[in-house]
Amino acid sequence: MPTRKQRRRALKERRHEYETVWVDSEGNELEEPPEEAAAAPERNDRPKRDGTKPKAKTTQQRGGRQVRVPPQPSWRRAVKRGGLFGVVIFAVFAILGSKNGQHNYSAAILFGVIYTVVFIPFTFMLDRFAYNRWQRRAEHQGQKPSAKKR
Questions:
Q1: What is the sign, positive or negative, of the torsion defined by CA atoms of 40, 45, 49, 53?
Q2: Number of structural domains found in the chain
């Protein structure tokens, strides 16, 4: 049994079915199309549908712009990020960790410090991985790896 959507589509197709009728200058219907209409190709504004979804336009994977050079990994940057992350974690645990309206700030500080201590080396290793990967890719492509020191 067709679904409601399928029934609506079938009704719509029946409403929009039409035949091309050729009429001469006197208003009489013709069996065959006139010569000028037969020579002109049929123009169809709608894309043909064969039951598949239309494919998206392909875009270039690598555009004409420069690839961003990752900065060299540094412990100073990792500590800054870790400190900011620790403050955010402290705020989250201080706000969400309350029981019956009482805040336990010592537990929030403890969680903030633990997360900060774990986060600092993790971000340094992640930066080092990204930088080393960029260097290997640049050497493989024959580019000169030139990163700015900050």
A1: positive
A2: 1
The answer as to whether 104 is a domain residue is: yes
Q: How many CA atoms lie within 13 A of 95 on its CB side?
A: 5
| Phi–psi pair at 29, nearest 5 degrees | -75, 140
In tens, the pLDDT along 55-66 reads 555 545 556 677
Q: Is 135 a member of any domain?
A: yes
Residue 51 pLDDT grade (very low, low, confident, very high; cuts 50, 70, 90): low
> Of the candidates 145, 144, 82, 77, which has an alpha carbon nearest to the alpha carbon of residue 119?
82
Rg of the chain over all Cα atoms, to the nearest angstrom: 34
**Which pTM does this prediction carry?**
0.49
Do 98 and 104 meet the contact criterion of CB atoms below 8 Å apart? yes
Q: Which range marks the domain in which residue 109 is found?
A: 75-140
Q: Identify which of 82, 74, 76, 89 has the alpha carbon closest to the alpha carbon of residue 116.
A: 82
Taking the C-alpha atoms of residue 74 and residue 32, their distance in angstroms, rounded to an integer, is 81
| Residue at 17 is within a domain | no
Q: Compute the half-sphere exposure of residue 78: CA atoms within 13 Å on the CB side of its CA.
A: 17
Query: Torsions phi, psi of 99, nearest 5?
Result: -120, 125
